[in-house]
Structures are given as structure tokens and as C-alpha cells.
Write a structure and sequence with these properties.
Blueprint lengths: L5 E4 L5 H18 L10 H12 L3 E8 L2 E9 L4 E2 L6 E10 L8 H12 L4 E7 L3 H9 L3 E7 L7 E7 L1
Parallel strand pairs: 5-6
Antiparallel strand pairs: 1-2, 2-3, 3-5, 4-5, 6-8, 7-8
Helix pairs in contact: 1-2
Length: 166
């Protein structure tokens, strides 16, 4: 029997589990790119997630199988903000993070579907670490394209900008 992925708003009590999930996920993708980071969050890292879950400017969504949290999406809840391009607004995807043992199970795609539904009539934007080839393929498979922007990232590798036009 296939379990259904349920997407819901994060609750304050989820913050520590989200910090742990994010730490495991980023340790896996950074490690695949040759950059080692901790797979266990420290207290400061946990506090960051507590603040994110409680921040009214962010929407934090959880993907779960029953009570088991399998993924998280964070986006700028202020929604749309103007850009230099006339008649264009953007929605900032902070990130989608999935438990490594749930990669390729549909969790990321379910979260992406929810993001796409929220960014109607706006351009989605996200930065991806250039050595995270798995994430780059994921975003490209979902219609995202590089926008030519970048910013410095860890281990001498940049974060590259992607956009999704609705």
C-alpha cells in the first residue's frame, strides 16, 4: 500500500524535527559535492528553524507520511515583490529539503506543486549550490531555468539563480 504525502503548514512543535531533517539533507548534498557539514544541528541551528517556523514573513510547509515528516518547503510569505522588470513580481523559494532516504519518492515534487500553486502570476526564484547536481536536475525537470545570477557559496562553489515563470 502506498502512503499518501500530506502537505500541511509547519507547527511550532515541528521546528526541531525540521532542523534535524534540514541538517541531514544538506549534509548529504554538500557531501556529494565534496563539502562536509554537520548532519546533526546544534542549538543555534535549531533556534534558526524555530524562528523560521514562527516568522510571519515566511510560509513553512511540511510534507509528511502519517506523522513522519519527510520534507519541508520554506518561501517568502510576503509573496510577491517588485523587480526591475516592468510588470514582473517574484516569489522567493527559500528552499525545499527532503530526508535523504526519501529522495526520489515524490516528496520534493509534492512540495514543488504546492509552491507552483502559490506563485501564480509571479516568477519563482531560488538559489542552488552549483555542485548540487541532483537539485539542479530537480529544478530543471520542474521547468526552472538559470537566470544568470550567482552569489558566493561554500567550498569555492557559487549558488546559482534559477527562475520559474508561470
Amino acid at each position: 500500500m502506498t502512503q499518501l504525502i500530506r502537505i500541511r503548514d509547519a507547527a511550532p512543535g515541528d521546528a526541531d524535527a525540521l532542523a534535524e531533517l534540514h541538517a541531514r539533507s544538506r549534509a548529504a548534498y554538500y557531501g556529494a559535492g565534496g563539502h562536509e557539514v554537520a548532519a546533526v544541528p546544534d542549538e543555534e541551528y535549531r533556534e534558526t528553524w524555530r524562528k523560521m517556523v514562527g516568522d510571519p514573513r515566511l510560509d513553512v510547509l511540511v510534507a509528511a507520511f502519517g506523522d513522519d515528516i519527510a520534507g519541508v518547503l520554506a518561501l517568502d510569505a510576503n509573496g510577491v515583490f517588485p523587480t526591475n522588470a516592468p510588470h514582473e513580481t517574484r516569489v522567493r523559494l527559500v528552499g525545499i529539503f527532503v530526508e535523504p532516504d526519501r529522495w526520489s519518492s515524490g516528496v520534493g515534487s509534492a512540495l514543488m506543486e504546492r509552491f507552483v500553486a502559490r506563485q501564480v502570476n509571479a516568477v519563482g526564484e531560488v538559489d542552488v549550490w552549483e555542485r548540487n547536481s541532483r537539485a539542479i536536475r530537480f529544478y530543471e525537470r520542474h521547468g526552472w531555468t538559470r537566470d544568470g545570477t550567482s552569489r558566493p557559496g561554500p567550498a569555492g562553489a557559487d549558488y546559482v539563480g534559477f527562475v520559474l515563470r508561470s
